[in-house]
């Protein structure tokens, strides 16, 4: 059972990193207190994981067969990649690290099925693009509705504040539903735990990461996008949550970081602010290529040594 | 929830109370200057001066109450609290300036009867109009920000009119008043600048409202 620890560790790292994409701006600009954000995120991540987290597990499971040992190595490799990249301050996506780790281990064990990979890669590429389009649509919708209904500064504040809590809860739910497969999917496939146990343990470990270690990431990420007004931040979070939730329904784990970046770019396009710079594009492309490659290499090396010593 | 709504109503109520008090202070100040031109430091003028001081203090007390409410409660977004505080400071400066000019003419014991009463009165009329527009704009912040925006544009136009009169009065001092020594001319010029500055302060408050609205446009 201790081998499940690598999955829990990965879930914890995911929670610590990805909560920032949901409540980062609200916490950094002191619209919502950190503990309020942490509690809401934790609760809704668990709900999302338990109620709708099983779909993503099927997609990841179809990439490769798993044993308990391979599941342990895959999760450990993904967790090490996420930790290493976070430490190096490089952009990282847990979903992309897990897929890379599954492929790395599968290459050595010769158990890879490449057919679902096209679907996964297309989902990764369309995540920021989809979030951008959804942000543009939501922006137009909000402009129309707010201009006609809310003309009072104080009421607009109430709307944004309540809206950020609702959008954050939705984002946390989508995160749990979409990303829990990354955490325990390989263990479910290995037959070590049931799907329900998988989503519950995954959800709880993500929640633990949110509660214990997400504050500093929230402040860093949040302050990075405070060029946005609170209303624009609300639209960005809602677009991100919608995008991630759509992929939860399709059953493909995607990056919440790339979804929020896409949403911010969408708002920038409408407002005439240029949020697309070389670094942003580099970060996204690195997420698509660099993260799975590094995770794949770590996983490949770990699997090779494991086979060598046993 | 009921606490949130009562607090938001309280902010609106206090803002309107504050602008009313500042307006009262400004009106008394204008009366004081008009009377001072005719009577100098008469008993009535001194009474009006006392009123200006006490109204400025009352406005200050309301301002503190608003600050306490804005800082103590978190029903508004942090940037809105900051914007409201800036607006409040700008509006309060109108009362501050009224008090400061009163002190200035009293301390210098200035005779301002020859500056140009009719032109000064023109400035007072325009400034009063401006402040009335500002009061309405503040009220509309809590009802219809588009309407507030239109009023702010009117405030800007009126400020330009005050600038024209200010420049005319100052140029008259240099070109048409060889009878005045340089020191008196400087005192007069400063007085004219200070009176015209009230209009600038109202415009600044209007600009704050403009920023509040612009930042909240989707």
Q: What does the model show?
A:
- The complex is a heterodimer of chains A (310) and B (218).
- With 310 residues, chain A is mainly α.
- Chain A has one domain.
- Chain A contains 13 helices and no strands.
- Chain A has helices spanning 5-18, 20-28, 34-52, 54-61, 68-87, 94-109, 117-149, 153-189, 195-213, 215-224, 230-250, 256-271, 278-309.
- In chain A, α4 crosses α8.
- The relative contact order of chain A is 0.23.
- The model of chain A has no long low-confidence stretch (mean pLDDT 89).
- Chain B is mostly helical.
- Chain B has one domain: Methane Monooxygenase Hydroxylase, Chain G, domain 1, CATH 1.20.58.
- In chain B, 88% of the residues lie in helices and 0% in strands.
- Chain B contains 6 helices and no strands.
- In chain B, α1 packs antiparallel against α2.
- The two termini of chain B are 26 Å apart.
- The mean pLDDT of chain B is 92.
- Chain A binds chain B through residues 29-31, 139, 142-143, 146-147, 151-158, 160-161, 229-231, and chain B through 4, 8, 11-12, 75-80, 141-146, 212, 215-216, 218.
Short characterization:
The complex is a heterodimer of chains A (about 300) and B (about 220). With about 300 residues, chain A is an all-alpha fold.
Describe the structure using short key phrases:
heterodimer, A: about 300 residues, mainly alpha, about 80% helix, about 0% strand, B: about 220 residues, Methane Monooxygenase Hydroxylase, Chain G, domain 1, about 90% helix, globular
Approximately how much beta-strand content do the residues of chain B carry? Answer: under 5%
What can be said about the biggest beta sheet of chain B? none
Integer-rounded radius of gyration of chain A: 19 Å
Elements of chain B, N to C (H/E): HHHHHH
Counting DSSP E segments of at least 2 residues, the number of strands of chain B comes to 0
Query: On the 0-100 scale, what is the average pLDDT of chain B?
Result: 92
Shape of chain A: globular
Please estimate the helix content of chain A: over 70%
Give the count of structural domains of chain A: 1
Give unreliable regions of chain A as ranges.
none
Give the helix tally of chain A.
13
Please summarize the sheet with the most strands of chain A. Answer: none
Q: SSE string of chain A, helix = H, strand = E? A: HHHHHHHHHHHHH
* Largest protein interface, residues of each chain: A-B, 21 and 20 residues
């Amino acid at each position: 059972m201790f081998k499940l620890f690598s999955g829990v560790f990965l879930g914890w790292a995911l929670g610590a990193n990805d909560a920032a994409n949901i409540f980062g701006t609200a916490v950094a600009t002191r619209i919502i207190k950190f503990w309020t954000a942490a509690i809401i995120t934790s609760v809704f991540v668990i709900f999302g994981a338990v109620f709708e987290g099983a779909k993503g597990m099927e997609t990841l499971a179809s990439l490769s067969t798993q044993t308990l040992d391979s599941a342990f190595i895959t999760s450990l490799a993904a967790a090490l990649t996420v930790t290493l990249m976070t430490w190096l301050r490089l952009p990282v996506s847990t979903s992309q690290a897990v897929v890379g780790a599954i492929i790395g281990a599968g290459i050595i064990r010769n158990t890879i099925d490449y057919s679902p990979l096209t679907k996964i890669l297309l989902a990764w590429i369309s995540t920021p693009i989809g979030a951008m389009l959804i942000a543009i649509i939501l922006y137009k919708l909000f402009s129309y509705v707010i201009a006609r209904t809310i003309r009072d500064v104080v009421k607009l504040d109430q709307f944004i504040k309540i809206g950020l809590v609702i959008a954050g809860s939705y984002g946390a739910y989508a995160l749990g539903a979409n990303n829990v497969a990354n955490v325990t999917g390989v263990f479910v496939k290995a037959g070590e735990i049931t799907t329900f146990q998988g989503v519950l343990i995954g959800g709880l470990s993500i929640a633990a990461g949110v509660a214990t270690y997400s504050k500093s990431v929230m402040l860093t990420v949040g302050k990075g996008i405070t060029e946005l007004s609170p209303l624009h931040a609300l639209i960005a979070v809602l677009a991100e949550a919608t995008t991630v939730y759509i992929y939860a329904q399709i059953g493909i784990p995607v990056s919440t970081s790339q979804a929020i970046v896409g949403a911010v770019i969408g708002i920038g396009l409408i407002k005439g602010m240029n949020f697309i710079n070389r670094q942003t594009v580099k970060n996204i492309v690195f997420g698509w290529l660099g993260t799975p490659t590094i995770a794949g290499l770590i996983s490949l090396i770990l699997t090779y040594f494991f086979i060598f010593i046993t | 929830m009921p606490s949130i709504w009562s607090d938001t109503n309280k902010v609106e109520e206090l803002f309107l109370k504050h602008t009313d008090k500042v307006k009262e202070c400004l009106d008394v100040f204008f009366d004081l200057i008009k009377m001072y031109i005719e009577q100098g430091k008469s008993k009535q003028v001194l009474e009006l001066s006392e009123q200006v001081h006490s109204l400025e203090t009352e406005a200050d007390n309301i301002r503190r109450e608003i600050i306490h409410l804005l800082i103590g409660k978190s029903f508004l977004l942090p940037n809105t609290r900051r914007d409201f505080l800036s607006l409040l400071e700008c509006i309060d400066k109108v009362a501050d300036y009224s008090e400061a000019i009163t002190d200035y003419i009293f301390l210098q014991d200035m005779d301002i009867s020859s500056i140009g009463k009719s032109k000064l009165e023109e400035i007072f009329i325009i400034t009063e109009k401006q402040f009335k527009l500002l009061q309405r704009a503040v009220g509309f912040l809590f009802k219809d920000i588009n309407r507030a925006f239109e009023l702010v544009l009117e405030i800007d136009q009126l400020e330009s009119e005050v600038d024209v009169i200010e420049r005319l009065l100052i140029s008259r001092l240099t070109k048409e008043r060889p009878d005045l020594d340089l020191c008196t001319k400087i005192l007069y010029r400063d007085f004219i600048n200070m009176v015209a500055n009230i209009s600038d302060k109202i415009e600044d408050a209007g600009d704050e409202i403009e920023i509040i609205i612009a930042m909240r446009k989707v």
